[in-house]
Structures are given as C-alpha cells and as structure tokens.
Amino acid sequence: MKRIGLLTSGGDCQALNATMRGVVKGLANNVDELEVYGFMNGYKGLIYGDYRMLSAKDFSGILTRGGTILGTSRQPFKLMRVPDDKGLDKVEAMKQTYYKLRLDCLVILGGNGTQKTANLLREEGLNVLHLPKTIDNDIYGTDMTFGFYSAVNIATEAIDCIHTTASSHNRVFIVEVMGHKVGWLTLYAGIAGGADIILIPEIPYDINQVVEAINTRVARGSGFTILAVAEGAVSKEIAALPKKEQKKKMEEIAKKYPSISYKISEDIEQQTGMEIRVTVPGHTQRGGSPCPYDRVLSTRIGSEAAQLIMDEQYGYMVGIINGKIKKVPLAECAGKLKSVSPNSQEVMAAKRMGISFGD
Ligand code: F6P
Predict the structure, then answer these.
(1) Whole-prediction pTM value?
(2) Domains in the chain and their CATH numbers?
(3) Beta 316-321 vs 324-329: how paired, if at all?
C-alpha cells in the first residue's frame, strides 16, 4: 500500500500532466494498493488541506494535455516562514496535512522556488520528491526541465512567422522570449529560428554593437534583421553597476516601457532610423500540448519517481544528466540557478553562424 500526495506549484508549463501520469501509472501498475491525494493550486492546497482523492483513471488521457489538472499558484519561498493573514504557520500547516493523511511521500512538481520549499519540507522531516518543470530550464542539477522544449517550439514558430513579414517589409523585428533571469529559451529558439541577433541576460549587450550588427546586415544587402531578446536581457552599462543601482535602473526601465524589448527598440530606432516592431509571444510559450520530447522526458522522470517511492528513497530531485535519468539530492541543488555559460558550445556555435550577441 502506498499513499502519495501530488502538487504542481509556480508558473504552469506543458507536460505537468504527463509527468503526474508517469508517477501514478508507474505506481498503479506496480503496487497492490495506491491512494493518490491531489493538492489543489500548489502549496495552497497543502497548507489549507484542499485536496481531492484521485484514482489511476484521473490520469488517463492526460499525456497530451497542457496546464495542470491540479491547478497551480505562486507561493514565494521567502514568505513560507511568514504566517498568513490569519496568523497561520504555513510550514506547520503543511506538515499537519501530510501527517493527517499519513502520506508515504509528497511528489512536488515545480521550478526553483518550488524546489526550495520542497527542500524545506525535507528538512522538516517529510518524505518528498521534486520533479523539475519550467520553460526556463534554469534548474541546477538537471540538463533539461520538462516544458523547455515545448516552449522552444512555440518561440521558434513565432520567429519563423516573423521571418516572412520582416523580409517583406524590410523591417527590424524584436521577438521577446520568456526565460525569467536566464537565456536558455531565447538561445535555443534564436538558433532554431535563425535569428540574426540574440540578447540574453548572461551576455550583457552593448547597444552600439547591436546597431553595428544591423548596419552590417544592411551593408550586405539584407534589409531586415530579427532579434531574439530575452525578457531578462540587460545592457553592459547596467550590468556594470553595483546590484542596488542595477535594480534601480531596471525599475526605471520597467516604469517607462512595457518590457526591455521596447527600450531596445527605441534605442535602435534612434540610431538607425529603421522601422522596428516588437512581438511578444508571452504566455503562449507555456501553453498547449507538450512536444514529443517533453512527453518522453516526463514519462521517464515520472516513472523514475514511482520507482523511488517503491524503493522508499526520498529527498531527491529526479533529473536528466547526459541522457540518463538521475536522482539528485535536494540538499545539493536547491537554491542554485543554472544559467547559460557565455562560453557554452551553443553560444559558440551561434557565433560561428554569424549571430551577434551584442557583446
Ligand atoms: O518561470 C516561467 C515563466 O514563464 C518565466 O519565463 C516568466 O518570467 C514568468 O514565468 C512569468 O510569470 P507569470 O506567469 O506569473 O506572469
């Protein structure tokens, strides 16, 4: 007999359902009896005891369905130790729910912040497993997160579509890609979509270099240029400032422009006089069905989690390293960010293709 709790927390992405299906099918097919408690809307469900008992049937037919059947919410890690507005101790409340239901394990699907809370619950003595989801691919200890390649597909399609209109009108186009503080999604979609310029937070840009790259294209007879810009892109000027000053400058930009792309667009327009358009695919990047790669990754990660539960091994994130599914101690990965190395093979390959990073 196994009793497990499941929750999905943080921003949604494709393949959350596929991963939960992997866990539940992996257990249902291999243990005598299984009780599954699905906590609603992320950690909220665990804190306030909002759950549904689910059966293996609930996980049938959801391999291809995006979003999460459990709902999700953001519960910032830094507020977990802060009582709620009625004075409730959230960590104690989560422990009480866990013990009341006599769970063998809590399986937590989420990104970096979610992982930190999972690690906190581990430190508090609960059996937890963390399964790494995010379109940002910024989780340390795993080469890939589920959701990432599905989002790469969508952002790439956006760049593909922009290509035809940009070339017809001889315009400069900025496609703004999600990714929070890292540039994985922009880098992959930028390469896959054949962008001419890629701007990511890990390689701060110099606007003069960006303009030079555009002018070089014009001089070579290309009337249009496509920039893939990460939502977290930052200029060299700002990156060189002390952290506090950086924050202040970014806040000023956020007040004046809908996002960094509009500031870059204005700067380019002022220097080149060219016609520029900004396209923001936004949350479409997190929507729709998981791509086949993510369906396979999720099934592998979910089924490994099921095996760990059968073996009573807890306190891990289940990730993928060099193509092999691995369990990584939460104590080793929680709280760390995986960013793009400016010297990575991907960046080098892009530079060899003539893609400018504005550096
Ligand atoms: O972490 C996933 C992500 O989509 C980021 O790429 C983005 O910065 C953020 O979530 C958007 O968050 P929200 O859905 O809360 O607007």
Answers:
(1) 0.96
(2) 2-147+290-333 (3.40.50.450), 151-286 (3.40.50.460)
(3) antiparallel
